[in-house]
Structure prediction request, 137 residues.
Amino acid sequence: MIRFAIRAVVFIGSAAIGLLVAKALVDEMTIDWADVFWVVVIFAVLQSVLAPFIANTASRNAPALLGAAGLISTVVALLITSVVTGLSISGGPGPWIYASVVVWIVTMLATLLLPILLVKAGIRRRRDRDPDATSPP
Prediction:
C-alpha cells in the first residue's frame, strides 16, 4: 500500500511539474488557477490509464508506434483534460505539439528524478531523527 501511495505521489507530482513547466514555456497554454488541482489530477489519471492502453494497442497493431506511445497518450490526455477542465491551448496545432512534447519530456524526467529525491529526503530525515541508525556497527 505504501508503494502505491508513493507511486501516486510521484505520478501526480510529475504531472503537476510537467503541466506547470509547459504553462511557463508555451504562451498559448493557459490554466485556470482555480482548476489547477483538477487539471493535474484529471491529466494524471488519464495519462496513467491511456499510456498502458496505447502501448498495448501499438504493440499488437503497430509496433513501429510503440516508442511514441507515451507522447501519444500525453496528447490525448491533454486534449481530454482541456475539454473537461480549465486547461486551454490556443493557436492551432503548433502550440499543441509544443505543449505535448514539453509535458511529455518534463513528466518523464520528473518521474525518474522524484523517487530519487524522495529516497534522499527519507534517508536524511532518518539520519536527523536517529544518527546512530545509519552508521555501521
Notes: The helical segments are 2-25, 36-61, 69-84, 93-129. The chain has four helices and two strands. The chain has one domain: 2-114.
